[in-house]
Every structure is written in structure tokens, then in C-alpha cells.
Amino acid sequence: MIEGFESREFTAEGFTRTVYEAGQGPGVVIMHEVPGITPEVLRFARYVMDRGYRVVLPELFGEAGRPFSLPYAMREIAKATCVRKEFAILARRRSSPITDYLRALCRDVHARCGGPGVGAVGMCITGNFALALMVDPSVMAPVLSQPSLPFGLTRDHRRALHVTDDDLVCIKRRVASGETRVIGLRFHGDPLCPPERFERLREELGDGFEGIELSPKDANPESPAPRPHSVLTLDLVDREGHPTRRALDRVLAFFDEKLRPEGAFASA
Description:
Number of strands: 8
Shape: globular
Radius of gyration: 17 Å
Oligomer: single chain
Largest sheet: 8 strands, mixed
CATH architecture: 3-Layer(aba) Sandwich
CATH superfamily: Alpha/Beta hydrolase fold, catalytic domain
CATH topology: Rossmann fold
């Protein structure tokens, strides 16, 4: 259990996962990064909850609440790469199988929480999942934080978006219509989220993609990670006016824009 969160089992598309939820308002599905639902991921979730949203955290790997450590992270990356069938680490033009489950979860959250749709935040190896979820009309506010799949072995991998060609057509159509847009976040110099990926997103989505790229000098100097990577969690400097905090504030404002149109929900 995580303090302050309810838990339940959710089954869809052949997968069952524990899902943690808290808060009231439109739904925001947060897909955590490696190695799991760390205290820093929970801090971000509570910021979203305090803004006036129902936060939904599916446990995709790792141990909920366990702090980050490099050995823990390496163990979970190895599992995702070599063992787990849910993740297609090197796929360039298709999504990981777990995204079908996550789309079903988004539909469930939307049906229960109401509003125009849900927000979806992916981080690290789940970062591109928020893009893949956009083929479902329930997803109105997708955020890609340091999207890292597929791993950048070649130039084609670094430019790839981890979605099928048909899904990309659907995503582009939704963005071009003005129905929604996409926010992406990364640190300059992050090899796990190469610049080519953001270049491709700008090529495909035009002004419908809002890329926020930060200097590695702005990363949390006390982060236990070996290099700047996790914009909203480990590398966040939680101080008003700091570049990483401004990035967090922009994400929260994005949810307000897409999930509370014309005052459909009172501000928190």
C-alpha cells in the first residue's frame, strides 16, 4: 500500500496490474519510469492530485514506494529488456503490448471520472506510451517525459516514435484538428532520449508538439541517478522559478487547458 492511495486490481487485454488511485476530479494516468513508483514519482503524482485531479498509477514494474537506487534500476531495465513480454524495447514502428492495457485503463478512468477526457504521462521507457494512447479519444492531454523507446542503437531508432504508421496517422489527425496537442520534456545531452526523437515529433506534429528541453546544469545536483534524465521526478529542483519546476508547472497548466475547458471543473 501507498499512504493516501487506494489500490485495486485492473484486468484488460490479457494483463492484470495493481492500480493506485487518489484525489478527485478529471483523471490523469501516470505511467512511472524505471525502476518503479518511487517516492519522487509519488511526489509528482501528489502535485497533480493537489491541482484537482484523480491520479491513477498502474504498477508496471518494480516495488511501489521503494526508493531509487542504481542496482534496483538496472535490475528492472534488465527485466523489461529480456524477460517481460509487455515491453518491446527496440520496436520502431509498433508499440509495446502493454499499451493496449493502458488504453483500456484510460477508458475506464474516463468513464468513472467524467470530463472531456484524461491526461496521460509517460516517463522514460513508458514515455512514448502516452503518444500511443492518443489513438483512443479518451486521452486528451498526453505528456512524454524523456521518452526513451526504442533505445537509440541506430539513427533510425533515435528518430523512431514507438508507434505504428496507422497510429501515427490517427495521432497527427487529432493534433491537426486542434483537438489536442503533445508536450515532451527532456534534458539536453540525455542519450536515452536523443534529440532526433524530438526533431521527429516536430516534423510530424508541427506546432502541435511543445518540446521543453532543459540544460543538464538545471538538473537536481543531489539526484542519485548517474546523469540528468528524469525531468519531473529525480532531477526536479522543487523550487519556485527553477527551470525544472517551471516545466512541472507547464504540465499542470496543460492538464487545466485540456481537462477543464470553459470551467467544466472548478479550479483546485
